[in-house]
Amino acid sequence: MRKNSIKNIRINEEVMHELSNIIRGEIKDPRIAPMTSVVAVEVAPDLKTAKAYISVLGDEKAQEDTIAGLRSAEGYIRRELARTINLRNTPQITFILDQSIEYGIAMSKKIDEVTRDLKEEE
Questions:
Q1: Closest C-alpha among 28, 51, 27, 29 to residue 38
Q2: What is the CATH number for 108?
Q3: Looking at the 3D structure of the chain, how many domains does it have?
Q4: Dihedral angle at the C-alpha atoms of 76, 80, 81, 84, nearest 10 degrees?
Q5: 17 in the Ramachandran plot: left (φ > 0), alpha (ψ -120 to 50) or beta?
Q6: pTM, full prediction
């Protein structure tokens, strides 16, 4: 199975959907911020490993605590994935903090400032 095959894309989407359901509804760890979302999931073609890109709305401490909480609950998350998704192998999940949403918001604010300055000069 190639990395970008239709089957792999479907598996990525299904794992992302189930992972977000587990994080949102089943994990009771207080370290995990309420505004945590799964941005993307990349499952390896052999289904042994997966990278989960997690976005957390909050300061750096909230982001670090959320990643630490997810890493400590990794066994539970993997077991729940195995229960809900019928795959040959349940992937070992690596949680990666994704800051692309924050970066996009910051860039949008900068663009708004520049356009506002240009309108004031006219």
A1: 51
A2: 3.30.300.20
A3: 1
A4: 180
A5: alpha
A6: 0.79
